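User: Second chain of the day. Same drill as before.
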Amino acid sequence: MKDKMDIIITGAIVGILSVLLVKFGNPVNMGICIACFIRDTAGAVGMHRAEVVQYIRPEIIGIVIGAFLMAFFKKEFDSRAGSSPFIRFILGFIVMIGALMFLGCPLRMVLRLGGGDLNAITGLLGFAVGIFVGIQFLNKGFSLKRNYKTTNVEGYLFPVVNVGLFVLLIAAPTFIFFSKKGPGSLHAPIYMSLIAGLIVGALAQKTRLCMVGGIRDLIMFKDTYLLSGFIAIFVVTLIGNLIIGKFKLGFVDQVVAHNDALWNFTGMVLVGWASVLLGGCPLRQLILSAEGNIDSVMSVLGMFVGAAFVHNFGLASSAKGPTLNGKVAVILGLIVVLLISYLNREKHIEVKVKGDVKVGSN
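Assistant: Same format as last time:
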């Protein structure tokens, strides 16, 4: 019971911080959005040139550093790698295609619900369907194989890179891009965003907060521990938005959102399915990366490259709705995830040893 109370308190704090970040400058229903903030950061360092979504988001930096410090002092930092890194890169890339079709990660989906955006309901349904499909392949033996111990130096590099990004944000050299309009121009004060990220990262590391894990564990084990954290985020965000006057119930004219139900649903099917195969949602991948999991770093790098690709090739949705290119990309993404799911099942084979037949797995 104490453990569940810990994650409920964590969810409540994440909800409060998300509302405060919106109150002090972040876009509505975007107090914290891993997909959106990775996209903005990718744009800021020139990976894409969509001028309305370019800003090094301190929240991402804070989440990584907060999780790293928590893991380090709890002696849970463990640098490991080698579990199908390129497949994980591809899956991270695909997660971003689905997220930017929907216009948000699983965390923002909950924040959108708490702000009254009913389009997030279809996103949530698609997300759950994607997780359910992914679970069927887990039950059939899907595996990206084990990882292996590496030097701690390799594990430290990801937090160090994020410190470097913070230096670039503060120094603001001419080769870093900052949006003058659009969502990228809307942000809370830098140090408020950084502190919020530090708190979220530390608490998410401590409690293993993960939306994908919450629905997965509910379906597979009838366990509501992880899901209770996101229920707390929803409840607190709902109350907070009502208090600050940012609650708007409906499907139309929502901020950084569209009301095409089919593609909101399908985009989040892709996010849910690919995230199950990765072992966690985008937030969880950041936390694992901070703990020294280099395979999760590859997933996060895939998200960065995916965000750049989505904007460079016109795949991202907007308030006007999804693009044709985006729809094609989501369909192709589903096909690729299906192939990855099928081809990475553990196949039981018969191995002959000295005349006897043994059952093993390749």
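The chain has a mean pLDDT of 95.

User: Great, on to the next one.
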